[in-house]
From TrEMBL:
SUPFAM superfamilies named among the record's database cross-references: P-loop containing nucleoside triphosphate hydrolases
Single GO MF annotation: ATP binding
Assigned protein family: Belongs to the ABC transporter superfamily.
Protein name, entry field: Urea ABC transporter ATP-binding subunit UrtE
Pfam families cross-referenced by the UniProt entry: ABC_tran
UniProt source species: Zhongshania guokunii
Residue stretches making up the ABC transporter domain: 2-231
Top-level taxonomic group: Bacteria
InterPro entries on file: AAA+_ATPase (IPR003593), ABC_transporter-like_ATP-bd (IPR003439), ABC_transptr_urea_ATP-bd_UrtE (IPR017780), BCAA_Transport_ATP-bd_LivF (IPR052156), P-loop_NTPase (IPR027417)
Amino acid sequence: MLLVNDVDLYYGASQALRKVNLSAETGKVTCILGRNGVGKSSLARAITGRHPVRGGSITLNGLDISSMAPADRARAGIAYVPQGREIFSQLTVQENLYTGYAPLKRSQRHISPEIFDLFPVLKSMLKRRGGDLSGGQQQQLAIARALITKPRLLVLDEPTEGIQPSIIKDIHNVITILRQQGEMAIVLVEQYFDFARELADYYAVMDRGEVILSGRGDEMVEEDVRRHMTV
Ligand SMILES: Nc1ncnc2c1ncn2[C@@H]1O[C@H](COP(=O)(O)OP(=O)(O)OP(=O)(O)O)[C@@H](O)[C@H]1O
């Protein structure tokens, strides 16, 4: 269980998160929605430790991770699929996957066959360079790399951005399988409303650094949410 309590985050003097509260349960998908620039990625960065918070606290399964370095958060069970994927274009698919080993002990460093069950396309591309993959394949690689640590919290920042529909469907299926397995909490930052609605057990809509609407996914009122997603 992830708990974000009254979190404030600044870039210099500019405040990007204002007293943000969020929870994410194991075995559930929590979607963060909102238009460009409202603080969704900042919240993902606060959770994963990519940017320090100035106020509030963040706990994962009771452990206060608020001031932990990203590597320590990864060891505590947090995996992150950043916006834009951040694949190493000069490394092969296999080498990109190996970069996911960093938080693991030597004895844990192997790629479980389940990764290739989830992403069969990657198995046939292990020797290809990351930069030669399509955007959708790179996104699948980024998710696979994150799953290598068998995380307890998976944070995905706009995994559908710029991706073709067939691969969006594949990513949807993977998230559904991960949810069913019930071993991790999933936080999904998303601007694609239909994708979010289909997957959300819980949702939070952000506007100007604040969570302004939240609730259960099956009680999401499309009009109310869409009002905060269109410019
Ligand atoms: N590194 C940074 N330095 C300064 N300001 C930043 C930085 N990153 C984001 N911001 C600002 O913080 C605010 C929130 O940005 P953030 O990226 O969290 O929004 P977002 O909802 O994820 O938007 P998008 O969908 O475009 O990624 C914006 O006003 C943005 O310009």
